[in-house]
């Protein structure tokens, strides 16, 4: 996170154990999505029922590029939220679901703004390990997996074949999300 985690307590005494649990939950969100700019958590115990104890409410607010995410579900009538740890868990689960939706939307946005398809040449094939490498027109190496090759044509590819491909950022560098074989390069004469 670019900004430090903020934890606020209302109508409840601050607790190092509760703070530690919140920090742990935030760390898990950060491990899932490294684009979180900031996180603010408010712990509140405003509701005292005649038939039960306090019902804790935990609000989580995440700041992300272009969007904010909030845990919005109020748990006023859930007996389980008499346990503060359960209230924390449920609020972070709600935020995690929204964060997963955010990550999916971002991936689609990135893919939809990619240039059409690029030209490349197959430079390596490793059929025993289900991957190959392409060289782009500007000399870069791009990884592709067997499942990225359209029409199950991986086994029909040869080093030197021309392909069209769509590129995306992979975990270890550029990778082709789709590879469309075009055949052997034409000899120039």
Beta-strand share of residues = 35-45%
Contiguous low-pLDDT stretches (5 residues minimum) are none
What characteristic shape results from the CA principal axes?
A: elongated
Q: Residue-averaged pLDDT, rounded?
A: 85
As for the number of domains, it is 2
The CA-CA distance between the termini, in Å, is 58 Å
SSE order, one letter for each helix or strand: EHEEEHEEEEE
Report on the structure:
InterPro entries: CSP_DNA-bd, NA-bd_OB-fold, RHF-like, RHF/RaiA. This is HPF/RaiA family ribosome-associated protein. With 189 residues, the protein is α+β, with helices and mostly antiparallel strands. The protein folds into two domains: 107 residues, Double Stranded RNA Binding Domain (2-Layer Sandwich), CATH 3.30.160.100; 66 residues, OB fold (Dihydrolipoamide Acetyltransferase, E2P) (Beta Barrel). The protein is 24% helix and 38% strand. The chain contains two helices and nine strands, in the order E-H-E-E-E-H-E-E-E-E-E. The strands form two sheets. A five-stranded antiparallel sheet has the order 7-6-5-8-9, with no helix packed on it. The protein has a four-stranded mixed sheet with strand order 1-2-3-4, covered by helices on one side. A hairpin with a 4-residue loop joins strand 5 and strand 6. Helix 1 runs parallel beside helix 2. It starts with 5 loop residues before the first strand and ends in a 6-residue tail after the last strand. The mean pLDDT is 85.
